[in-house]
Amino acid sequence: MTKIRLDGFPTGSAVAFSVAAGTASASADVAEWAGSAAPPPPPPPPPGDDSDITMTLSATRVTGTAPTGILFEASATSPVSSVVIPYHDIHYTWDFGDPGEFQRMATDMPWGRDRNLAYGPVVSHTFGAGTYTVTCTARDGVSAPRVVTLQVVVADADAVFAGADTGVISHSGNFAGKPAGASEFTSFAAAKAAMSGRAQQRYLFRRGETFSNPDIRLTDSCDKVSFGAFGSGADPVIQITNLNDSGIIVNNSVTPDEVCVEGLDFRLPYDATNPGTVKPNGEGIMFGGAALTLSGVKTVHNCRIEGGAKAIWIGGKDTSPQYHVYVSDTWFSSWHDYGIFCGTGGYIGLAGITGAQPTGTINGAGQNTSPYYADQGPFRVGNQDGPVALNLIDMASFNSWAADSNNRSFQQCLRINSGQVDEKINIDRIRTEGGMIATSTNTSNDDEMAPIWCLADKWHHIHSDQQSTVVVVDRGGQTFRNLVAVVPNNIPGSSTGTRRFVADDTSESILGNADRRVEVYSYTFVDLRSDANARNRPGTTTNRDYDPGVLDAYSSRYMGNGIDHAPNMTSGGVTADAPLNSTGTWSPRYDGERWENQPLDTSRAYGIEVTADFAPLPGSDAIGDATGKVAIDDFYGVLRGGNPSRGAIEPS
C-alpha cells in the first residue's frame, strides 16, 4: 500500500488531492480527507520545576557595549530546615554561557582559570560581543536543584563606535588593522581634539608601541568612551614618568553611561623594593574625583598595571561615591598606596585578577615618614555602599604600617569596611598570601563595622603575618567555608596562624553584630612550624603554640567540621587527623620579600617547603566523620556525598 507523508500541514486540516491516470490529461478528484496524528508530547518541564527551592535572578544590566561588566544576584528560599540564612546556606553555581579562560591569572590556581564558572549569591562577569544565556543553579542539599536563566545581549564595539567615532593612534604612522572608517592620528592629544564633542568616543592605541606621558583624560561630555588597542603585537604601553600623573583619568561632571579600558599595559613610577623611592601620587586608572560622581558602568578588562600610588582608584571617600566598577582578567603589581581602592561605593566586581607585590617588597618599617610612608594592601573598600563580588582572585599582601623592624604584621589581603547594615559580599575561589584573612579590621568609625551578609567559599591562604591570626571575624553575618589555611615554618615569633577567631568587643554591640550568625566550617588549618619557630616572638614572652581558636563573643555562631593539623610541634601540636596528603600541590609564590637590611636577609624570609592541599588520606580520622553543618560542595567544587568528611577537601 502506498504511504503518503505530508509535511507542513497542521493536524486535522483539509488537504485536496488530484491524480492523473497514466499519461491521460483527464483528472479525477480524490475526496478531501483529514489526516490525524497523535499530539506531540508535552515539552519537558524546565529543570528544577519540581524543586521546593524558589529563586529569582537580577542583573545590574542585560545589555551593553563590549566588553561590559555585569553584576548578578540570586535570591532563593527553601523550606529545608538546614537553610537558616539563604544567603549563606543555599549553594549557587553560575554558568555565563561564555566558555574560556582568564589569561592574566596565575597558572597554579587550584581551581584552574575557567572564566565561565562562578559560585555564590553575588557574582560578576565581563562579556564580549554576543548573546548569552546566563544560568544559575541553586541547591540546598536536599531538594531537587532549581535552575533559572536570563539573557544578556552585548553589542560589538566596532558597530557602536563606527567610522569616525573611533580614533586610532600610532606614533609611527602604522594604521594597519584599524577598524573600517576610523580616523588616524599620531598622538592622543590630536585624537582628543578632533573627537571632542562626539557622543561616542573610542581611542585605540597601536599594539607594539609605547606612548610616553600621553595625558589620557576625559574632560568633555559624552555618552560612551572606550580606550583600547588595535593592530598586532604586544599590548600598547602607557608609560608614565611623572610622579603626579596617571595613566587614564575619567573625571567629569557629565558622566558617560559606559566607560571601558581594555588591553593596555600601564607602567608608572614606583619601586616597591627600594626604601628610598619617593611615593607617587598618580594612579594607573582613575575614576572620579573630589565632589564628582561617575555613575556609569566602568569596565577594566585584560590590562596590566605596574607602579603608581594605586593601580585603580575608584573615587574618593564620601565626597565622590563610585558605583558599577568591574575589573576582570587584569594583573597589577608594585603599587604604593593600595592596589585597587574604592573610597565609598558598591556594585563592584573583581573576576580573574592577580594583585601581588613583587619579590623584594619593602616592609612598612622605616617607611612611615614623609615622603615615603608604608605601602598598603591589594584591595580596599573604605565605605561599602552596595554589593561586592570577588570571583577567582589571586592576591598577596606583605605590606605593613609597622615601624618596628621586627614587626611583620602585614595588612590584610582584603579590607572591606561596611557603610550600611546588610551589605552583601561574596568571595569565591580566592588564593591569598601574607597578611591575615579578614573582610575588615577594627576601626574607630562605627558605621564601617555594621553587620553584613558575607560568604567566603573556596579560599586557599598561606600565612606569613607575625602578629595577627589567620582569620579575623569581626562583624556579624559572615560565613567562611572550604578554607585551607597554611602557616609555613616561619621565623620565631611569626603569627599563631590558626590560633583563634576574634570578635572585637567594640564592634560586637554596633548595629547588632552580636546577634548576626557567624560560621566557620568545612575548613582545614595546617601549621607547619617546628617547635623552634612556634615559640616566642623576639622581645616578648608570648607563647605562640598552635591553637585552632573559637568563635567567641557572639551569641549566634557555629564552628565545626574542621581539620586542625600541626605535625611538627611536640607541644601544642595537633595530629589526630593524620594521615593527610602532604606531597604538596602549591608552594609559596611570593615568599622571599625583602626586609629593611639589604640585600635580602634569607633568614627572615619564610621557608620554601611545599604547602599541600591536605586532603584526608585512607586512615585519617576525618573521613566520613562530619557532623552538623557541612558545605554542599568541597574546596574544588565537587559535590559531597552522603557520608561527608571533615575538612575542606572530600577525599572521595
How would you describe this protein?
The chain has 652 residues and is mainly β. It is 3% helix and 35% strand. It contains 4 helices and 38 strands. It has a 26-stranded parallel sheet that branches. It has a 5-stranded mixed sheet with strand order 4-10-9-6-7. A hairpin with a 6-residue loop joins strand 1 and strand 2. The radius of gyration is 29 Å and the shape is globular. The termini are far apart.
Strand content: 25-35%
What general outline do the C-alpha atoms trace?
Answer: globular
Which regions have little confidence, pLDDT < 50, spanning 5+ residues?
Answer: 17-39, 497-505, 594-601
Helical element count? 4
Number of strands: 38
Report, as a whole number of angstroms, the end-to-end distance. 61 Å
Helix content: under 10%
Major sheet attributes: 26 strands, parallel
Entry summary:
It contains four helices and 38 strands.
Keywords:
single chain, 652 residues, mainly beta, 26-stranded parallel beta sheet, five-stranded mixed beta sheet, 4 helices, 3% helix
Lay out the secondary structure.
Blueprint lengths: L13 E7 L6 E8 L19 E6 L3 E3 L2 E10 L8 H4 L1 E5 L21 E3 L2 E6 L2 E10 L6 E10 L1 H4 L5 E4 L13 E3 L2 H8 L4 E7 L3 E3 L3 E3 L5 E7 L6 E3 L8 E3 L7 E5 L2 E3 L15 E5 L9 E5 L2 E3 L3 E5 L7 E7 L2 E3 L4 E18 L23 E6 L3 E10 L17 E4 L5 E11 L2 E2 L14 E11 L7 E2 L5 E10 L17 H4 L9 E10 L29 E4 L2 E3 L87
Parallel strand pairs: 4-10, 11-12, 11-13, 13-16, 14-17, 15-18, 16-19, 17-20, 18-21, 19-22, 20-23, 21-24, 22-25, 23-26, 24-27, 25-27, 26-27, 27-28, 27-29, 28-30, 29-31, 31-33, 32-34, 33-35, 35-36, 36-37, 36-38
Antiparallel strand pairs: 1-2, 3-5, 5-8, 6-7, 6-9, 9-10
